[in-house]
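Example complex used in Figure S2.
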Amino acid sequence: MSAAQTEAAGGTSRWPASLLAGVAIVLAWLLVAGLGPSFSPHDPIAVDLANALVPPGSDHVLGTDSFGRDILTRIVHGARIDLMMAFFGVVGPFLLGTMVGLVAGNFGGVADAVLMRILDVTVSFPYFVLVIAIVAVLEPGLTSYFVSLTLVNWVSYARLVRSEVLVLREADFVLAARLIGVGEVRVMSHHLLPNAITPAVVFVFTDAVLTIVLGSSLGFLGLGVQPPAAEWGVMIAEGQLYLATAWWICVFPGLAIATLAFGFSLIADGLAKQLHTAP
Amino acid sequence: MLRRRFLQGVLGGTAFASTSMVWRPALAQGSNVLRMGMSEEVLTLDPIKTVYGADIIIQGIMFARLLRASDDRRELFPALAESYTISDDGKTYTFKLADAKFSDGSTITAEDVAFSYTRMRFQKDSAYAGPFTALDKTEATDARTVVMHLNKAFTPFIQNVEIWNSGIVQKAAVEAMGDEQFAQTPVSSGPFRLVEWRKGDRVILEKNPHYYRAGLPYMDGIELIYVPDDNTRVSMLRGGEVDMIIGTPYQLISQLAAEGFQATPEPASVIQEMLINHAAEPFNDILVRQAVSAGIDRKAISDAVTEGLGQPASSLMAPVLSYFNTDLPVPVRDVAKAKDLLAQAGKPDLGFDLMLAAGISADERAAVLIQSQLADAGITVNIVKVDSTQGWNSLVEGNYQAMLGWWYNETTDPDIALRWAIWGAGDNLSYYTRYNNERVNELLELGAAEPEGDGRKAIYFEAQKIAFEEVAQIALYYPPFRNVYAPGVQGMRLNPGYQFSTIDEVKLGG
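Predicted assembly (789 residues):
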């Protein structure tokens, strides 16, 4: 499918409702992350043991955690970190994976064989174990999280792009471009990439969901964001011991993760419909 | 390393609470076997090969020692030794053996005792010979008499003959089987003997019919079941699948007590502290150490982390130990004083990295509190969570500024304890803090040779005072052991040295 075809298929029709709903949810969270911290009445990290484990009420709308920190404030501040995780956690793998897929698909032969064997090796490790191992080696924190995701997650993008390129490189317009002497780099950047990238773009939003959940899991295991920073996964981890006595510590950050993830899923779903391609 | 780490599961539990308030009677109908839910797996049954928590517990149950401790480890009673004498120079200990048998029915001879001690003290792979370095030679002078020769007067020695790794093993069995096999299928001298060891799952013990204390034990057997997950262990206790659990998250203790379980925390010899590196900036400066110590609210940390079950620290060893310095008060937090000390030190904008092992929720909570408390004094604490092995290596190599750590003591004598914590002349460099005070080192040597009494008390009081005032480590709080027992388990108690020393008298009922 070429860019022109894509436009003809969906360009003039209405946007799918799921796409609009997803964009609205994610925009709402972006707004919260951008403006919320300036409005929040409490300090997200100041410990106030006298006000620990206060249930949701007038002073603390969503209650306080075991350190007396306001849950709402921490969710609002955490939105920045979680959205950042979603963004940076996807950008690295997307760029690396797309490049690899493009090169492997276009050149084939030895380059393809080597890159695909590297991919096979990466895939052969249990996913979660590999991410945790890399994070643990690099020293826990956000940067190592992004590095480890880039090193592990590129495989999905590489496969998606490569499979598109394999078909496209035999397409008439590509053969024509080569015939009139267009260089390899330009063929890849101007003719193959724009047409091969659609599935990868759709997958970005699905991947963003997985990235947030994974980031929260790492926070939960103590390997992600370091305390006292507010991050939703860390908040849930800290609250789990109090699930029976102070449910609000876990439940509200859990809802935050769920809604943001839902928003990204809707976007991925909507984009897939819009662009007529399966994620 | 395991000395510090083995209790990780016990002390640093995380768990997921079930809200179920319903539980079935825990004891299986008509069974007289105690099922223990363990947070750690048993790795060896040879008492000299380990310092690991689950091993220490099972070996303490399987192997009798020369003396036997009360359930608070305060008193020692005759056990395999019916009596002993100490020479006037304090260097020769003579033990008279009681009439006792191994679990295979053969007699426990002086030769077996001498063999056990020589093996524990001098065999290369003996894991914890440290407390016995004063012991030069153990010999059997006749079938019932064992004589131990020390290279110096060493008052704590008599306490040490109860430590789990001095358990008596059968010479013939060890020699016939070899160490490898003996560690799998030992002949025992204690109240229970091995039936079956299902690796990775459980160890099944049965009553030793030849146990030297007539009429004991009361129980028919014990199963030590390995359940690594705190949540699962608690659920199994509630569901009646185990009769007791070792290591329970603080947050669940009161809930389990309300449900009818015996959940009284047991005093431990454990101390939780912030280890600081005296060989590096900024803690090589006593003013900085005192400033950080003044900026910390130990009571708030103890209450918040242990749900009020622990005690804020006022010395560098636990209060269950003898000669604990009761004159030292728990320091009161004083932010102004902290700032003042920092100004004197010329470091008004102090910052340091605080390392802790990831995944230990109690330590993570303590770190967040320390960070927030010190922020008030203008000190920036950067929390660095690391893998526990990596953390231990940094500690040993001195490649750290501050780190959360803990330790416990096998006996109630302060000697091993303070040599671990503040003895700069020792191999572990004052628990790797590189704290080294000549006077303290000298006091510890004096204390080891001094007979029990006020003189010995004065020595240890002084050593604790110096080390605490110089802030050798930043002691935080004394946590209790947190085992929970079903209502029918009678008389089961973990003593401060991490032993169920009266397990032979435990009854199951109800």
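The interface with chain B takes residues 45-47, 49, 52, 66-67, 136, 139-140, 221-223, 226-228, 238, 240-245 of chain A (CB under 8 Å). Residues 71-107 of chain A form the longest helix (37 residues).
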